[in-house]
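User: structure tokens for Calcineurin-like phosphoesterase domain-containing protein, please.
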Amino acid sequence: MPPSGDHNLIMESPIPKSIYMFFLIGFFSLLSCGRRESASVPLVYPYLQNVTSDGATVMWETGDSVIGKVRYGAPGSLEQLVTEQKPETIHKLRLLGLNADSTYSYRAEYSSTKLGESHFRTFPKDGSRPWRMAVYGDSRSNPEKHAAIIRGIIKANPLLVMHTGDYATDGRIYGQWKPQFFDPAAELLKSVPLFPVIGNHEYNSPWYYRYFDLDFYHAGQAYYSFDVANAHIVLLNSDAPYADWDMNSGQMRWLIEDLEKHASATWKIVSFHHPPFSARNLRPVIPQRWVWHPVFEQHGVDIVFNGHDHHYFRTYAVGTTEPRGTRTGIPYIITGGGGAPLEGAEPQDYGAFIRKGNHFTTVDFEADRLTLRAIDDSGVFDSLTIHKGFGLSPEQFASYPAMIFKLNLANAIYKSTPFSIRKGMLKGRLSLEVPTYFKIPLNVELHWKNADSYAINHCRFNRLLKPGDTLKLKCDLESSSVGSSPTPIAQVLFSLPGGGKPFINDTVNFFPFKIRKTDPLTAAHLSQSPVMDGAIGELEWKESKPLMDFFPSVRQIVTGGLERTTLVRLGHSGDTLFVSAVVTGITSPTRSEKRKRDDLSIMGDDCFAVSLGLEKKVFVFVATSSGSLLDALNKNPEWNGGIDYSVQGSESAWTVEMAIPLSQFGPGVPKAINLSRWENNGLSADEWNPTYSPINRSYSLPAFGIDMAEPAAMVPLVLTH
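Assistant: Done. Predicted tokens:
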């Protein structure tokens, strides 16, 4: 052990106490200074809003309320200063007195913090020289992919960027805006102004209105317009839960007035989030299609940008052929590849180009020419040039009146009376009247598909359709093999009176006949009750006649694909109804997750359903391929019946057994029944008796869904002794 004196020498400081304290104070001062610098780093770095030909807005966010100021001027000379009147956390300062088409530098400051110097360019007043904008959207959820898109946009060097909506997974959550939007886009937004469109993932959040300077144009609203060079750009709010959109709404009155006021603009551009012309078959047609497009067409809009669908899609020019034969139309662009999970798309008769992938678009403006380019990490993969004053060929043009014809035709079929099948025989007459709004005369041809098992006779219709005519179609239908073959498909083909193609969407396929069974279904009395294990191997099931003549839904006929079968057996033991089903031809091998009982998400899974009718009550029992259960009384899932069931499954098929006690229905027993199955791809469904529930889809005409509680579609249920 060392002597105590040595120990004292080791502990004694060679530095005088006064100097030691000086260094300690200095050291902790440095630490304190470092913390202040860290605290002074902005939460959101400066970004540009509402650049015009004579001004710009600089915004940023700090953690504390402080007075912000911006120094600005010509590059290298920050001689002008603008200062906030009161402390803020989200800072917004307007730079005024700028010259058009000029480069300026600026620097944001607050407290003792001076942020880095950035630059931007003001807008030109006219279109005397070319300029470029970038458009992208749906950048939520994946900051890395969003950042990659931003790097591509920076290389493209646009004058401005337009975002088609969905900046964060949930715009109501403050903590998502910085990591999902502002951080990945910071390097771009400090030098290029962003003009936002509100999307559905913003949920009309106050954060959207705080982060973007919308009051500059239209106080309190998410729709506005602005001018740049020779273009007038309109941004609308299509998020229907929070925005009115019909002809009597404030937004529509403003839109029409705005377009009339800027009628002389060389280029008119419109953007909003939800696409009126989608390439996703699962998407409903948004009602704005039928209200907004005619206004755009009437006021000479040149191109429309949308998001919402996470891919790239370009339509042909959508418009109307005028009486003299001239064609004018508007291409609709979906640019939703900014980072959100990608989605597939399906070909449409109005679709010119589809691509699934992350991307952005650029638009180059010249005096009389506009060039669109779609760009991914490999370069330009699609382009379109619009020349002012140039006509469109039929191959470049999708007729909007043809789309209205499809809508009116679907409505006529919805209103028609179903044909009844009795003892396997069908006989009846179809009569449809469909208003049209074509401005040119058209020849009409009628063809049939899937009609081998049907006798379709005495078809009468307008073979020459004059402008404003109502198409009248009458046919006699007869068949003795309904249920074992697909429903007939009618095809209307339009052509010019002198021959030739009038527009790209000249063919309309539709399903004119609604067919329903009336014969009863019989549940055999089983000698023993089958075990509910999902195996369906008991001999007792052999005592029941198999039911296989399910009607494929309209959607399945359109999509085609796998051979699909649904084999059902019904039986009873006097006090219990037994149902078994073998479901094959599954289009998606992915099994749905096991859900809680009566979780409404079950309706989007692979399902088999039994509907039972008793007087004015409809009891529904739904089992999924993963073993989930939903039961309801007159569409009310709060009702829970007594049921024993079991499910087994593989990648290509699954089976279900149900034991439904009859005592739960009161003194009576169900007198009617229907059976149905559908899959989680949303496109495939089969019913024992079609319910013909209308759904809003454009790819199938008409598009039918399933209404499990539809009494009119039920057939009598007979329990044998």
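User: Anything notable?

Assistant: The first strand starts at residue 44 and ends at 49.
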